[in-house]
């Protein structure tokens, strides 16, 4: 009996000790887990919130589909970057454009042993955007340009690639990685000024070539019309050649990426009747596809061919350019015949080419490839609208047989 009581007492003590141990472990685990919730931040907290990237990487971070915040693990190392500018912490200039830290919890990070809340991080000025040749070549004698943000520590946050044709002084295409979260992008950021960079153009000021009176004079001269006639390039209507983005401003998630689209190498002469209407709808449709299907897309946007107008005396079609050197007759900066966009899901390898005709004066138009637009339930363009630009869709393979500047990618099917 004695032994048995002892055993029972010993048993109770043992159980209590066990329970105490379990409780302690559970409390520790719970505490640990609370800490391990990590950090959650809204990336556009202030107008010039620093870019936040995982330490040592060069990739823009995006929210998970359906969210509008960025998440970091407890103690995850991150870099806060103000490209070409300085990071401000609690309104104090750190005099550094890159600061390393790690996530503590909520919106608090540890930087140089101090706790700093995300809303108290800022940049000293508008980021310094960069466009530069990479030294690589691309399709059809193009030269590869990368556009984005130089961090100053041997990293480049690439926002867009451009395959630039130095002869015609226009991009064959531009390329972006389109996040599934694109419709959570920053809205209403101020429009930056246009830059033409250095080393890309040899036709003077590109802005000047687009000025309405100048484009009218150039085009009218080509087609034998009085250079001040507003017959084709009108005043106060959408019948003029706008600086048409290839990669749209709204294709950028971060204000920095939106601003990066304002390089002249990203634009081509686009009738505003088309730019602001059917083409705009194609851009919206691709973004909505990414968002609705929660897929990251690869998106190429480019131009092809040269639009024409009839010569006013002979009636012959004349190709239109915004740069003409009357001395050596060099022509550059063509008015493209079409704008195109290839949207591609790299995981399923399904893609589609969307094409729009850039000339409101064409009464009819023969597609470059077999139109399959009726199969794309997600496409909302008005296909047969002359003023807004005829629009259609093709498989990537049939499109590439004509538009050889589109990179050769493996395609298993149509992006439905
Ligand atoms: C940044 O530089 C300014 C001017 O040189 C100096 O006054 C300031 O103390 C520096 N800030 C830090 C955090 O080192
Ligand atoms: C994180 O949020 C919790 C709950 O609001 C709060 O108790 C905790 O103090 C916060 N941590 C920091 C470091 O601010
Ligand atoms: C797209 O993402 C790939 C990595 O998947 C990267 O190598 C490339 O530089 C990115 N390109 C652009 C233009 O963002
Ligand atoms: C984008 O450009 C606008 C207009 O210049 C500027 O106000 C804004 O700060 C820029 N954003 C970034 C992140 O540089
Ligand atoms: C061009 O049109 C303007 C205004 O209608 C007119 O004054 C001018 O004489 C015309 N020039 C030529 C060469 O026909
Ligand atoms: C036009 O061509 C001539 C002869 O090649 C050249 O000297 C001149 O610089 C060119 N003008 C422009 C604006 O490119």
Automatic annotation (TrEMBL):
One of its GO terms (molecular function) is RNA endonuclease activity. Residues 156-399 form the DNA/RNA non-specific endonuclease/pyrophosphatase/phosphodiesterase domain. The chain crosses the membrane at residues 7-30. Mg(2+) binds at residue 275. InterPro entries: DNA/RNA_non-sp_Endonuclease_sf, Endo_G_ENPP1-like_dom, His-Me_finger_sf, Non-specific_endonuclease. Keywords: Endonuclease, Hydrolase, Membrane, Metal-binding, Nuclease, Transmembrane, Transmembrane helix. One of its GO terms (biological process) is apoptotic DNA fragmentation. SMART domains: Endonuclease_NS. The active site is at residue 245. One of its GO terms (cellular component) is nucleus. It holds the Pfam family Endonuclease_NS. Belongs to the DNA/RNA non-specific endonuclease family. This is Uncharacterized protein LOC115884508. It comes from Sitophilus oryzae.
